[in-house]
Design a protein that fits this description.
alpha+beta, binds adenosine monophosphate, 447 residues, elongated, 22% strand, five-stranded mixed beta sheet
Length: 447
């Protein structure tokens, strides 16, 4: 007989500790319709990306921590505050990916893709991890669909990733997409802008929030990402990157806008949009959308969230060890947030099929054969529903009605013996008895 540790008080140290058997904060179980909506959104993005000539890429969910510290920037929020990092048993420092771009650039360099025809156009998707404060639309594990074009400095590439993203969002059901866009220019322009911005903010040092005082020292561009009320007016009056662009950078941005106009993409130049990461140069952009949220007290509030964003990152390649510059541009769409937006309620996956028949079995003899019939229908790809664990005819018919399945197959004791099945039309209640080996053809002909 097993020893009862609880009675004699000799619990092991493991049992003494209160076990935490719940999911980790900010992480979610995604199942049922939510799963299919996510899958459907990703399928639509994939379809558009493939049409535009992007090819699939899968990169690891973890990378060496250096990849993100170097690539994204040690001072950025997603690296300095939000990275899920660990040391392996072998002593390697690794992190769960908080974004895709640095990992894609690592793959480009490590696999020698500079020697294949340029640009390399890839898409990838999957979960990302950021130790952020969880709230609606902000999770510690979330999914992005990501596009990258590496090995081209042409303005048409910037316009192409933007246009592809707009098409993906439209396919998912989001209309009237407006691209918030800006340019921070090349190295020279960016340097001038940072200098102007620093001079401007230094004069405001005792008026800005504590975070901004820190940003002023470590990463001045991020001053323009501040959401604090007290800093909004300063942000508005701050120097604009546009006024610091050198002629080449101006030309690049002008061309991007011309291409966008040519494809009918709506854009709005947003002078405070710089995006918080170190690697951006030239074009930066974001897609924003508003949705309604019902609070616990029933109050409905409007919330605007960024549903995607990206930009050009011409110097990241060298930062990450490439001998040559790898001019590149990319975008990431936030799948979880997109699916909060109006218009996306009915996104479906290609895997989901509305059942054409509901299979009803009655009696032991019928139940014995029922798995073979279900398998026969599956092989013939007849979308079907059933409830084999139920016995009652009324219960099974009730389920068929609730699911609004147009035809029911009734397979009882007698039918099992005669090798036939009754096909009932649920709209006019007419029914016919069909030989089992002819039933697939019969169903396929039904409207
Ligand atoms: P970013 O990589 O920060 O530019 O984010 C690109 C998109 O990913 C954003 O526009 C959001 O839609 C989505 N996103 C970023 N962080 C989160 C998060 N913590 N939870 C859910 N979605 C996110």
């Amino acid at each position: 007989m097993a020893k009862n540790n609880f009675k004699n008080g000799s619990k092991s140290s493991n049992q003494n500790q209160q076990a935490n058997l719940q999911k980790v904060k900010g992480f979610r179980d995604i199942w049922g319709q939510d799963y299919f909506r996510q899958k459907g959104a990703i399928e639509k993005c994939e379809d558009v990306a493939l049409y535009y000539g992007f090819s699939p890429l899968e990169i690891p969910m973890v990378e060496a921590t250096d990849i993100f510290e170097r690539g994204v920037g040690e001072e950025t929020d997603i690296v300095s505050k939000e990275l899920f990092s660990m040391t392996t048993k072998g002593g390697d420092k690794i992190s769960l990916r908080p974004e895709f771009t640095a990992g894609v650039m690592r793959a480009y360099i490590e696999n020698g893709w500079a020697s294949v025809p340029q640009p390399v156009m890839v898409y990838n998707y999957g979960p990302l991890f950021r130790h952020d404060k969880p709230q609606k639309g902000r999770y510690r594990e979330f999914k992005q669909f990501n596009l990258e074009m590496l090995g081209t400095d042409k303005a048409i590439a910037d316009a192409m990733v933007i246009k592809t993203s707009v098409s993906m969002l439209e396919e998912i059901g989001i209309q009237d997409v407006v691209v918030e866009i800006n340019s921070i220019g090349d190295k020279e322009s960016r340097k001038k802008f940072i200098k102007d911005l620093t001079t401007y903010y230094k004069k405001l040092n005792n008026k800005i929030c504590a975070n901004c005082r820190e940003r002023l020292k470590t990463s001045p561009l991020r001053l323009l990402d501040c959401k604090e009320e007290q800093c909004q007016q300063f942000k508005k009056d701050a120097p604009k990157p546009m006024n610091c662009l050198n002629p080449e950078s101006k030309k690049h941005f002008k061309e991007v806008l011309e291409y966008l106009e040519g494809t009918g993409v709506n854009y709005n130049i947003n002078h405070t949009l710089v995006r918080g990461l170190d690697y951006y140069t030239h074009t930066v952009f974001e897609f924003e959308k508003t949705f309604s949220e019902t609070k616990e007290n029933g109050e409905v509030v409007e919330k605007t969230l960024s549903i995607g964003g990206g930009g050009r990152y011409d110097y990241l390649g060298k930062v990450m060890g490439s001998k040559k510059d790898v001019p590149a541009v990319g975008v990431a769409i936030g799948i979880d947030r997109v699916l909060l937006m109006p218009g996306t309620e009915n996104v479906e996956s290609k895997l989901q099929k509305k059942p054409k028949v509901f299979f009803v079995q009655i009696g032991l003899e019928a139940k014995l054969h029922s798995l073979s019939i279900v398998e026969m229908l599956r092989k013939a790809r007849v979308p079907m529903a059933q409830s084999l664990s139920k016995d009652s005819l009324a219960v099974q018919l009730g389920m068929a009605e609730r699911l609004e399945v147009p035809y029911v197959l009734i397979f009882g004791q007698k039918e099992a013996m005669d090798n036939v099945v009754i096909v009932r039309n649920m709209s006019n209640h007419s029914q016919e008895t069909i030989d089992i080996d002819k039933v697939v053809d019969y169903i396929k002909k039904l409207k």
